[in-house]
Design brief:
binds adenosine-5'-diphosphate; single chain; Rossmann fold; globular; about 140 residues
């Protein structure tokens, strides 16, 4: 049924994968799907704020994000699941939607929000992805 599952991960928030990753992995087992992990790092800009960062800051941030998402995939995903890791730069929900489109993902699995935001049923990125995605989104409640 599903062949390409996208799991967006905030590397600074364990809650973004601790429940969602096992769900996505189980779906991959059931459907023989491939798991695509994505993390988004912000763009630091070219204006005044951007000028305060050293020139190679962005490349280092992207390289660090790549190392961390690959380590997470190695540590937490069973080797019999085919997994691939991606790092995008920009606005979180836009990059999630763009990556889903580019990969032709047929399901996005994502956690609803950080546990601290108990009063909200959906965090801002999860809400926007649900609102704008043209593929199914499985929101895993934290
Ligand atoms: P909160 O503000 O409570 O963290 P969000 O809507 O931002 O709520 O987070 C919900 C989900 O959005 C996360 O579990 C993750 O799937 C996705 N997400 C948030 N930040 C990122 C990020 N930097 N990269 C990829 N996905 C992210």
């Amino acid at each position: 049924m599903y062949k390409k599952i996208l799991l967006p991960i905030d590397l600074d928030q364990e809650s973004s994968w601790i429940r969602a990753l096992p769900v996505a992995a189980e779906y991959c087992q059931i459907f023989g799907a491939r798991l695509h992990l994505l993390t988004v790092v912000p763009e630091f800009g070219t204006g005044l704020i951007g000028s305060f960062f050293p020139p190679d800051f962005e490349e280092k941030a992207v390289a660090e994000a790549r190392d961390r998402i690959e380590a997470l995939a190695r540590d937490k995903i069973s080797p019999n699941i085919r997994a691939a890791c991606y790092v995008a730069q920009g606005t979180v929900y836009e990059e999630i939607l763009a990556t889903a489109r580019d990969l032709k993902a047929d399901l996005i699995v994502m956690a609803s929000h950080r546990p601290e935001l108990k009063d909200y049923l959906l965090g801002p990125n999860a809400a926007r992805v649900v609102r704008h995605s043209d593929v199914s989104v499985l929101v895993v409640r934290n």
